[in-house]
Amino acid sequence: MLGQVNDLKVNYESKGDGDVIVFVHGLGGSLHIWNSQTTVCSRYYRTLSYDLRGSGRTGLSQCEYSIELWVSDLKELLLRENIEAAHLAGHSLGTLVVQHFAVSYPHMVKSLTLVGGFTEPSEAARKGIYDRSDVVRTNGMDAVADAIIEGGFSSYSKHTNSALIGLAKDLLLRNHPEAYAASCRALAQAQAIDHSKVEAPVLLIVGDEDKVSPLSMSKLMSRRFPRAQLEIIPNCGHWATIEMPDAVNKSLLNFLSTL
């Protein structure tokens, strides 16, 4: 469904009843990377997934994208749906959005689940992301899709699930080049939060072959958050929600059942 949020119409899906889990996708993704999680979790919770500004079926905007703008969009979507507080789950770039949301609006956050979580890009990574933005603006998504697939998925997935790899590439190629480039620039400018300010319990899920936000980064965050636990998924890369959906679902539901 489409709903007015700030200055644009946001595409989102709501399923089930009960406590709310909100799912925030990452760079190049859409709400559909959470399909397995929303299908399973909506048996016990109300799930809300949506396309970020400039992604999926949500409208584009001419303003400069930023983590703060995505945080504002998330807040307005929750207010639109009369949600006072929710469990937040993010993937990749989406983990930065939900972390910053938790610092800005702690009373609206029951827990955080970070799949392939980020602190902030290193200086070398910032340059690489800016460079990718320039390449996409000039040459389109075809110029970067294969490299994203190569670095984002585990060797196991690439050799045993070629159908998934093809669908992931199609998802990437459907991105609007200018919006994807703007999202890259926002990610390149992202700053880490003060993790000690997050009072909500945190679950960190990471693939053992994640090259984008590696295991070492999740281990670092698990020490910085006051209340965190770490789950490592074997034979899994960065796109854990679609590479190993059953493992992600099990970890998430087990975590929520203990709160």
TrEMBL record:
It comes from the Bacteria. InterPro entries: AB_hydrolase_1, AB_hydrolase_fold, AB_hydrolase_sf. One of its GO terms (molecular function) is monoacylglycerol lipase activity. One of its GO terms (biological process) is acylglycerol catabolic process. Keywords: Hydrolase. Transmembrane segments: none annotated. GO terms for cellular component: membrane. Pfam families: Abhydrolase_6. PANTHER family: MONOACYLGLYCEROL LIPASE, MONOACYLGLYCEROL LIPASE ABHD6. This is Putative aminoacrylate hydrolase RutD.
